[in-house]
Design goal:
Length: about 240
């Protein structure tokens, strides 16, 4: 009989303990997990930015002419050069962004055939280009534009003014500098990478200058519809 007492007592204690645990279950508090809130991706936000650009360029004019007599001279060779510029703008967070830019552009050796015995005239151009621009950025990844950045493409257009200084060189030597102010416009397209605070892109810009004129030259000249092709690298810094 004594041999049965211990097992019966143990079994009885186990039954009551299980009932008590079921009636009042133990709860565990994990404050680290309870208070954790996952970060929220707010998406693209509007921001101001500064920008800087550098480019190589190639220029070609439709024709050169004598502004007084109307005589036309054929452009026979294009000119090569470079430019550098700065700007400031605002991106809306929807893909649209706007900025104003100022570039200083140099281009040499665009050549016109002038049959006056002094040989062809080659142009030296120094121009300050001020443009107001609008762009549309679009994501090249599967998720489109995101706050996490990544690869993107863009297209854009701009309009403004060109402050030109130019002179021509013939067989005798360089002529006098002359200046004029002209309408200017641009179309842009390219690709870039968004690092967050810094955005870098590489693109093409077609820069149009309506007229390059020099009344101090002998003879005076005007070059109509100059198109300057640029390969342009830009870095933007967001605030």
């Amino acid at each position: 009989m004594n041999k049965l007492v211990a097992p019966i007592a143990f079994a009885t204690a186990a039954i009551f303990s299980t009932a008590a645990f079921a009636a009042d279950p133990v709860t565990f508090d994990y404050p680290v997990f309870k208070d954790y809130v996952p970060p929220v991706d707010e998406g693209l936000m509007g921001s101001f930015y500064l920008r800087g650009s550098a480019a190589g360029n190639y220029a070609w004019g439709r024709e050169a002419r004598h502004p007084e007599t109307g005589e036309i001279f054929e452009i026979t060779e294009g000119g090569w050069g470079y430019s550098a510029g700065i700007g400031a703008g605002y991106e809306t967070g929807t893909g649209l962004r706007f900025d104003a830019t100022v570039d200083y552009l140099l281009n040499n050796d665009m050549t016109a055939d002038v049959p006056d015995g002094l040989g062809d005239r080659s142009l030296e151009l120094r121009s300050t280009i001020a443009l107001a621009n609008v762009y549309y950025d679009f994501g090249l990844g599967g998720d489109g534009l995101t706050a996490a950045g990544g690869t993107f493409g863009y297209v854009g257009a701009g309009a403004g003014v060109a402050f030109n200084e130019s002179r021509v060189t013939d067989n005798v030597g360089p002529g006098e500098w002359g200046s004029n102010t002209s309408f200017a416009a641009a179309g842009m397209a390219g690709v870039g990478y968004d690092f967050g605070a810094v955005v870098a892109d590489l693109g093409y810009r077609a820069l149009y200058i309506n007229s390059i004129e020099n009344d101090n030259s002998t003879p005076p000249y005007a070059i109509d519809d100059t198109l300057i092709h640029e390969i342009r690298a830009t870095v933007r810094y967001r605030f």
